[in-house]
């Protein structure tokens, strides 16, 4: 179930990056990021109201965990900038490769209070295949 959901997330991210990139091309990088996040705020507010959930912030949550929104602004901004110069395939491929590298580091060291999942040498084959694929995409 979670693997299928992850594939669906990948489809949604592709659609999102494409739509965001087109908006950015039409009105500019910074204004598009603002509009995208306002629409996101309206959407999640509507969903919270629909589900009748209250916003209860626990005091024992580490402060750095609230930085995801700021990081999200830069993710959208850099995706928009890259999309208009590199296209959807290369933007998403390079982004996913960056995610792959950092997620491997996070898993290996158990960063951000994650469960430790040591790096398996067999994963290098997958990393290399993806890297070679990206090189082919960049060249051709």
From TrEMBL:
Keyword Transmembrane helix annotated: yes
Pfam families: DMT_YdcZ
Protein name, entry field: DMT family transporter
Organism: Clostridium malenominatum
TM ranges: 34-50, 62-78, 90-112, 124-139
Keyword Mitochondrion found: no
Sorted UniProt keywords: Membrane, Transmembrane, Transmembrane helix
Lineage of origin: Bacteria, Bacillati, Bacillota, Clostridia, Eubacteriales
């Amino acid at each position: 179930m979670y693997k299928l959901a992850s594939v669906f997330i990948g489809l949604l991210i592709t659609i999102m990056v494409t739509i965001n990139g087109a908006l950015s091309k039409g009105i500019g990088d910074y204004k598009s990021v603002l509009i995208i996040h306002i629409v996101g705020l309206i959407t999640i507010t509507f969903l919270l109201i629909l589900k009748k959930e209250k916003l209860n912030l626990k005091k024992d949550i580490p402060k750095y965990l609230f930085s995801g929104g700021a990081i999200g602004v830069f993710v959208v901004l850099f995706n928009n900038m890259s999309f208009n110069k590199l296209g959807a395939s290369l933007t998403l491929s390079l982004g996913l490769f960056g995610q792959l590298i950092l997620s491997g580091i996070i898993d290996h060291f158990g960063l951000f209070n994650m469960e430790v999942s040591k790096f398996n040498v067999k994963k290098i084959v997958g990393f290399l295949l993806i890297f070679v694929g990206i090189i082919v995409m960049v060249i051709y």
